[in-house]
Amino acid sequence: QNLKKYFDVNNSNIFKNEKTLKAVDGISFGINKGETFGLVGESGSGKSTTGLLMLRLLSPTSGSVYVEGEDIYKYSKAKFRKMRKDLQIIFQDASWALDPKMIIEDILTEPLKIHNIVPRFEREKEVKRLLNIVGLSSKDMKKFPHEFSGGQRQRIGIAKAISTRPKFILCDEPVSALDVSIQSKILNLLTDLQKEYSLTYLFIAHGLNVVRHVSNTVGVMYLGKLMEIGKVDDIYNSPKHPYTEALISAFPHPDPKIEQKRIILKGEIPSPINTPSGCVFHTRCLYKMDICEKLEPKLTEVGENHKSACFLEEKVIENSKGGEKVEY
Ligand code: SF4
Ligand code: MG
Q1: 2's torsion region: left (phi>0), alpha (psi -120 to 50) or beta?
Q2: Nearest atom within ligand 1 for CA of residue 243
Q3: pLDDT score of 261 more than 80
Q4: pLDDT confidence bin for 271, thresholds 50/70/90
Q5: Residue 280 CA: which ligand 1 atom is closest?
Q6: Positive/negative CA dihedral, 291, 292, 294, 300
Q7: For residue 269, how far is its CA from the centre of ligand 2 (angstroms)?
Q8: Where does the ABC transporter domain start and stop, copy by copy (predicted)?
Q9: Quick one: which H or E segment has residue 195?
Q10: Which of 20, 43, 65, 252 makes the best surface tag, with the fewest CB within 10 Å?
């Protein structure tokens, strides 16, 4: 709910005269239980920061995160510690989550112990069960993380995430580091687990091709803001925001008979420290109008459960200062 995360970079040597880095700049969205929200955008758009805020691994500058109606930032530390097991994370590179000096059995036993998931005498059985669920053999228990392939390590990362029987898992680019041939296997595993345990996912990805197959709803982020949000089919079949359109055009259409126009975006995503005025996308937008530099478009209803932040859709602009309406 209106999440913001600003970092103070005033004293940094790198950014001499600038004050604030707006990593996440006022975004709101909801995820239904048992569904997947795909959050996409280029590097530096604020996706991972959003994910960390949702897990209370980072505290917001303002805004709230509600889990089952309760603001998790209002919980005491002690109460939140108990809730921690409900909110898990799968990283892009499982190596980050797996201690290289520990064997798999110990890695998977640790969360069982900390959160008291099963009685002590059942822990070994539980580790074997978890390995089976993710498609690994219990014979692998005594091995170290480096003895596995990238895909297998991601399976261990997934086993660790589900070991606490969570409700919500932040999947932060879980397949980006894997070979394409392995990607779909991991995605299938994640969707199977979701069905089996009615898990709710925030699925972060760079491009739209990966989230398409796993998401119910998709949000497109750019420079800390949501540009467009909608049901997955609406986003793919009738994108309303020029940025979404460009992201979709980067991949071939699944139907080879349909020729897709390619939109090449100019330049790089601007620095989140010195964001463009008005519509933050205006420096790269093919449809830029004069107004786009001056005013900021709001996320506006463009269909059922579908919103876009672009003046091309917003026919009447409310001037926030004077309250008067400007037609163009
Ligand atoms: Fe492009 Fe203007 Fe729409 Fe921004 S508001 S996406 S600059 S047309
Ligand atoms: Mg990231």
Answers
A1: left
A2: 6
A3: no
A4: confident
A5: 4
A6: positive
A7: 14
A8: 9-248
A9: helix 180-197
A10: 43
Q: To 5 degrees, how large is the angle CA 277–CA 65–CA 7?
A: 45
Cα(295)–Cα(280) distance, integer angstroms: 10
Positive or negative, the CA dihedral 71, 81, 101, 131 is negative
CB contact set of 173 (below 8 Å; sequence gap of 6+) = 92, 204, 205, 206
| Dihedral angle sign, alpha carbons of residues 110, 111, 116, 121 | negative
Cα torsion at 152, 157, 158, 159 (round to 10°)? 90
Predicted local distance difference test score (pLDDT) of residue 115? 95
What contacts 177, CB < 8 A, 6 or more positions away? 92, 93, 150, 154
CB neighbours of residue 312 within 10 Å: 15
Report the pLDDT averaged over residues 148-167.
Answer: 95
C-alpha 266/C-alpha 284 separation (Å) is 5
Question: pLDDT tens-digit profile of 288-311?
Answer: 999 999 999 999 999 999 999 999
Q: What pTM, to 2 d.p., does this model score?
A: 0.90
Structure tokens at 224: 């800390």
The structure tokens 């269909």 sit at 303
Residues with CB under 6 A from ligand 1: 242, 279, 281-282, 285, 287-289, 292, 297, 310-312
* 324, pLDDT greater than 90: no
Q: How far apart, in whole angstroms, are the C-alpha atoms of residue 317 and residue 172?
A: 36
Instruction: Please choose, from the candidates 5, 96, 97, the residue with its C-alpha nearest in 3D space to the C-alpha of residue 50.
Output: 5
- Residue 318 reports pLDDT greater than 50: no
Q: Is 289 exposed, middle or buried (0-12, 13-18, 19+ CB in 10 A)?
A: middle
Nearest ligand atom owner, CA of 281: 1
ipTM over 0.95: yes
- Answer whether 230's CB lies under 8 Å from 218's CB: yes
Question: Any idea which ligand is nearest the CA of 205?
Answer: 2
With a pLDDT cut of 90, the percent of the chain lying above it is 75
Q: How far is the C-alpha of 189 from the C-alpha of 167, rounded, in Å?
A: 16
